[in-house]
């Protein structure tokens, strides 16, 4: 499996299929107690050959849930997240609808607010490879639509995204490619138009699917 600059891959699969484990392996973090088979290469070099600083300049990882321990402000947290200054901090705040949170302590944020701040942290790191673990999980419909527009049109063309997600209709709007993790441990991959197929989705999720007026519905 290979990810190229400019591609937006969505990883789909049932709960516990290994989506988060895969993203952590791609980030070079790994899961406690989980043995890794195979090799991850970043830009042609095995992952383990990269120093921590060089890795931070190449890939950024957003987990499903962030655990904060210190009451620093959102702005200070974002300033500390910058590895390569490729983006304007205030422009990213505005684009994600969190500019009003800049002076709020991170410990006081709601789940959806903290998740958008985590996305801002990931982007402001300045890495060309973004690994996002269910960035839509706590977002209301308005912010889901905002993130669709932003992820699909506002990031530099040299960036590559790998995103785990469950909402097939959201995936249809954001992804260029899909990696499907199947229950038997195998996988399928391809462009989004070919992968969003009722028969494949049934293999992935174990339930029937149909398209109604351009919207995917699980039966």
What is the compact description of this entry?
With 219 residues, the chain is α/β, with parallel strands linked by helices. The protein is built from nine helices and ten strands. The longest helix has 14 residues, at 111-124.
Principal-axis shape equals globular
User: Low-confidence spans: pLDDT under 50, at least 5 residues?
Assistant: none
Q: Widest sheet: strand order?
A: 4-5-6-1-7-8
Number of separate helices: 9
Question: How would you sum up this structure, described in words?
Answer:
The mean pLDDT is about 90. With about 220 residues, the protein is of the alpha/beta class. The strands form three sheets. The protein has a six-stranded mixed β-sheet, with helices on both faces. A two-stranded antiparallel sheet has the order 2-3. The protein has a two-stranded antiparallel ribbon with strand order 9-10. It is globular. It is built from nine helices and ten strands.
Describe the secondary structure blueprint for this structure.
Elements: E1 8-12, H1 19-27, E2 41-42, E3 45-46, H2 52-58, E4 59-62, H3 74-81, H4 89-95, H5 111-124, E5 129-133, H6 141-153, E6 160-164, H7 168-174, E7 177-181, E8 187-191, H8 192-195, H9 198-205, E9 209-212, E10 215-218
Parallel strand pairs: 1-6, 1-7, 4-5, 5-6
Antiparallel strand pairs: 2-3, 7-8, 9-10
Helix pairs in contact: 3-5
